[in-house]
Amino acid sequence: MSDLVLRSPLSGWALPLEDVPDEVFAAKMMGDGLAIDPLDGTLIAPCDGTLTAVPESAHAVTIRAANEAELLLHVGIDTVNLKGAGFTVLVRAGQSVRAGEPLIRFDLDRLARSARSLITPIIVTQPERFRIVDRHETGRLRAGERLMSLRDMGDAAASVTDDPAGTAIAGILVVPLPHGLHARPAALVVQSLRNLRAEVTLSLRNRSVNARSPVALLSLGARQGDRLDLRATGPDANQVQAAMERALERALSLGGDARLPLASSMVPRVAASGELSGTAATAGLALGQAVRVARREPSVAESGQGARLELQHLDDARERLRRRLVRLAPPDDGARASIVGAHLEFLDDPELLESARKSIAEGKSAGFAWRAAVREAARALESLEDDHLAARVDDLRDLELQVLEALAGTAEPTAIQLPERAILIARDLLPSQFLALDASRIAGVCTVSRAATSHVAILAGALGLPMLTGVDAELLEIADGTSLLLDADRGRLKIAPGPREIDDAGKRIAERARSLARLLTAATFDCRTADGERIEVFANVGSIAEAAAAVASGAEGCGLLRTEFLFLDRAEAPDAREQTRQYQQVVDAFAGRPVVVRTLDAGSDKALPFLAMPPQDNPALGLRGIRASLWRPDLLRAQIAAILAVRPADRCRILLPMVNEIEEIQAVRQLVAEIATGVRGNARIAVGIMIETPASAINAARLALHADFFSIGTNDLTQYVLAVDRTHPLLAAGLDALHPAVLRLIAEVCSAAGAAGRPVAVCGGLASDPAAAAILVGLGVGELSAVPAMIPAVKDAVRRRTLLQCRDLAAEALELDSAAAVRALVAEHQARMTS
Ligand code: PEP
Ligand code: MG
């Protein structure tokens, strides 16, 4: 067969490959060839062939000639970073081209200013098969002139895996490179396999390629964050994943990607300076430095070493993880506990375990079996297309990783040493990654992922950290250590802010701290309206730690102890004695102030591992709150006994969630009467009910004859009045309890309770909203129970108006048509008061 003649694709100066200012090309890791320093800006086809890859960045093309020789034409060095700026691509992948046909035009001047080098490697990527038999020596040449000839040496060199038998592994390779798997990293990946005896394929989006072919790798078009399915068979298969991961790490550190020093002209402008926007998941302002947090994917061997051993590995790993989770989030820590509770729940999920054990019995390794079981469960949830369940998919993904890391024996899998004032930047963050970090060093969080309601957003909110989600993917190009100004209030992230911006932000942060300190001091006093009407401001708590924080924030009592949060991690129901111990600690923390203990509000969005519910198609309308407690009277009994045993005996009040019926209150009173004598408790303990359903609000006058007090749960009341799921990822953010329909019901509840001489509290989220405080007081609410952090601001809002002003405002609000109109009214009043 005759040699293939390649024509020069550019006019310019020919150079040996060794002179290319790039380690990967110069060391011939991509293959043999030569380079051209171009003198004009048109790249033409060097031979007839088919274009196998034309990346979006348009800085390179690959061509397969009729004899199967594969060529890479790579315009300049590190030009992938320009993301196509200065390039015009004239062809598309898959197209046939003739020798001499223009492929790419590029702006020579522009590239000369912005690229590290214009030297263009022309590479034959299968040097084992195609030998260069003559090549142009250094010197000037014109586009279309003869450049070199290739001789086909046959397929002999292609088989590196003379023994494809042996181990088979399957894994996931995540592309960490901001510019994806472009030529240089592809070369390093191929190079990493040189001495390994294994057949290796990588697959993405239903395309599988031979991982030993750089061109084939490029044709995957893999972008940062893409997860490539890796399969390897052969005697060295076990080493393949680690080798490839090292190659990708090396590519990252070699540069050409955003990890290059920021001074380099190659770093995209936006990564060095500029501003990105996103959606505030939690408000606030922070100055700090970038710390990138990447997702990790431990490798997993497919075959096990015997079922008994693998089962043992899985159980040991689960046990190690269980201990770690409990340590990470002690049960007295509200937000953490609820998230970790979900993970603990999945860890013992019988279906997951059964599926994993089945695979192990079929010869798979513990890691492979666990991963397959979790992914199958995640796929099943995803296929239901229920947004609420999608959040559980995140939990599953998180748990998959944690168990795999525990299997790999990593003690503290995701711990990163953070500098002071770290602003975390990530595509997305798993709760376990966040929880493993030293929270005292985190100043803020930014993610590309849009899951504003995700668990990490909840954790960040609980810590008062500003967080932006849905930030442009350029976020991931910011180098570690870059100075950042995160202004979540305005949905902005400023990269490398100037001295004046830093100064201004510093002043704003200091001013916030001062006004917070002022409010905090004022919050230690009882709350009254401007004309002296006493309004109690209590706290909602879900843990002992929160109880202490509440008192420090000026809480005059606990208006809602969410007891279900205290026991999220329990596989077994806590007995009465243990419950008493916990309640007693909360009561002690409140040091003489009243504590309203709500009976377990299990079901719907609050799953308790020890309270297995029958399957429910619509849990928000199913067994939950008091219905669940009456369905399991043994648990309710223990809980009432526990509350009655707290001392002093007059300190607690009982609050029942989701009450609709008078019989529900009577059933609890009956239990109190039965149990009080046995534990020498207070038989006349106050028993109040939550108003959370339209029925209870409408029937408030009747219920008031049986309940000692009302506490309005505006979270549930609003979801049921407006028929909008409060956990819905798309709709929940628009759910506003200041909707006039909700306010009218609150007004009715207050007037019914007033007629019966019963006090009314609000303990739903609306009580934590300073904009709502005056309206609620004006409607007749006498107690606001807020999250501890909002108590100072809520007290401040109440103190600014007289009772009459509050009533006028409430009366005006009741006449409006929408929550937005109510908010506008409050803002307008506020502006009038401050002008
Ligand atoms: C409410 O529904 O407003 C409430 C306080 O209860 P939870 O948020 O715990 O359901
Ligand atoms: Mg509720």
Describe this structure in words.
With 835 residues, the protein is an alpha/beta fold. It contains 27 helices and 35 strands. An eight-stranded antiparallel beta sheet has the order 9-5-6-7-11-3-2-13. It has an eight-stranded mixed beta sheet with strand order 19-27-26-21-23-24-25-20. Strands 28-29-30-31-32-33-34-35 form an eight-stranded parallel β-barrel, surrounded by seven helices. Helix 7 packs across helix 11 and helix 14 crosses helix 25. The protein is elongated and about 105 Å long. About 3% of the residues have low confidence. Magnesium ion binds next to helix 22.
What's the structural blueprint in terms of helices and strands?
Blueprint: E1 4-7, E2 12-16, H1 23-26, E3 32-38, E4 42-44, E5 49-53, E6 60-64, E7 70-74, E8 87-89, E9 96-97, E10 102-106, H2 108-114, E11 120-124, E12 130-135, E13 139-141, E14 146-152, E15 168-174, H3 183-192, E16 199-204, E17 207-210, H4 214-219, E18 227-233, H5 237-254, H6 269-272, E19 274-277, E20 279-282, E21 285-292, E22 300-301, H7 307-328, H8 334-347, H9 350-361, H10 366-383, H11 387-407, E23 422-426, H12 431-435, E24 442-447, H13 455-462, E25 467-469, E26 483-487, E27 492-495, H14 499-523, E28 536-541, H15 544-552, E29 558-562, H16 576-589, E30 595-598, H17 626-631, H18 633-644, E31 652-656, H19 662-678, E32 687-691, H20 694-698, H21 700-703, E33 710-712, H22 714-722, H23 740-756, E34 760-762, H24 770-779, E35 783-786, H25 791-799, H26 803-814, H27 819-834
Parallel strand pairs: 21-23, 23-24, 24-25, 28-29, 28-35, 29-30, 30-31, 31-32, 32-33, 33-34, 34-35
Antiparallel strand pairs: 1-14, 2-3, 2-13, 3-11, 4-10, 5-6, 5-9, 6-7, 7-11, 8-10, 12-14, 15-18, 15-22, 16-17, 16-18, 19-27, 20-25, 21-26, 26-27
Helix pairs in contact: 3-5, 7-8, 7-11, 8-11, 9-10, 10-11, 14-25, 15-16, 16-18, 18-19, 24-25, 24-26, 26-27
Bound molecules: phosphoenolpyruvate (PEP) and magnesium ion (MG).
Phosphoenolpyruvate is lined by residues 560, 562, 601, 692, 713-716, 763-764.
